[in-house]
Amino acid sequence: MANLCKELLALKPAVVRGNASEILALGAATGKTQTRGVDSSHGAEDALPAARAIASLHSCVVAVSGEVDFVTDGDCVAMVHNGDALLQAITATGCSVTALIAAFVVAARGTPESDLVATAHALAFFNVAAEAALERLPKPVGPGSFRVGLLDQLYLLRGEDIASRAKFGVYATRSD
Ligand SMILES: Nc1ncnc2c1ncn2[C@@H]1O[C@H](COP(=O)(O)OP(=O)(O)O)[C@@H](O)[C@H]1O
Ligand SMILES: Cc1ncsc1CCOP(=O)(O)O
Q1: pTM of the model
Q2: CATH number of 2-172, picked from 3.90.190.10, 3.40.1190.20, 3.40.710.10, 3.40.50.300
Q3: Best label site of 60, 95, 96, 116, fewest CB within 10 Å?
Q4: What digits encode the pLDDT tens for the residues 91-123?
Q5: Ligand 2 pocket mutation, candidates 19, 65, 86, 91, criterion most atoms within 8 A of CB
Q6: Phi/psi at 61 (5° precision)
Q7: Residues 133-154: what's their mean pLDDT?
């Protein structure tokens, strides 16, 4: 596992996305940060030192997903406050938002926007789609209808919906 992580990082990814436990494990596997053990109990902020270390060492962006998402280039840290805990009740949301991050990063190449900004916007897009699905679905919402509603909103949402609903924050700027 540690060797595979090292091989993948050697390919110089633009962005690494994981939940807190995954980023803590990655930091431990690549030998630059310590972890208290890998389980699902970590909040995203717990993994921020590991995320910053990985980002600095490998000159990439690291996104830690969770209730609040943290996105860092090793120095600056942005936060995304959208989404819902029900996203953790369906499989492949982490994989899906990671694919969306790749699409946003590629789309932003050739524009002034950084990979960090593109990554934060992809997370906001995905999580606003989740919020819109929850608003529209009959209550109570379970994982089955939520999965379908989320897919619908990922198709239906427009840029202006994201602009008005995204909740970004700045955790640290370059000089902090
Ligand atoms: N408690 C939560 N509240 C709001 N959004 C969440 C919550 N947990 C996860 N998300 C969102 O769900 C998506 C998948 O993240 P996550 O569940 O951390 O991935 P993974 O499936 O790899 O564990 C991300 O867009 C993240 O922001
Ligand atoms: C078991 C499985 N099936 C499709 S993706 C996946 C693993 C990743 O799931 P998630 O993105 O929710 O962490």
Answers
A1: 0.95
A2: 3.40.1190.20
A3: 95
A4: 999 999 999 999 999 999 999 999 999 999 999
A5: 91
A6: -95, 140
A7: 98
